[in-house]
Amino acid sequence: MLKPGGRIAIADVVNIAPLPPELGADRALLCGCMAGAAAALEIEDWLAAAGFTDIRITIKPGSRELVET
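The chain above was modelled as a monomer; its predicted structure follows.
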């Protein structure tokens, strides 16, 4: 449990747009956590259900270039 006013930071792959079915079924993308990544809104819902408030998901600048390589 966090202390009042505490913060939590999680670094993970987040899906910001739906994947086409052929990419969602791609084994290499599944193994690399790309195809199985949770949507940002889904993660917000999970955190809210766990009691967190003032939830902000910030996509790291430059992360798209990292994924494309």
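Helices lie at 21-24, 27-31, 40-49, 63-68.
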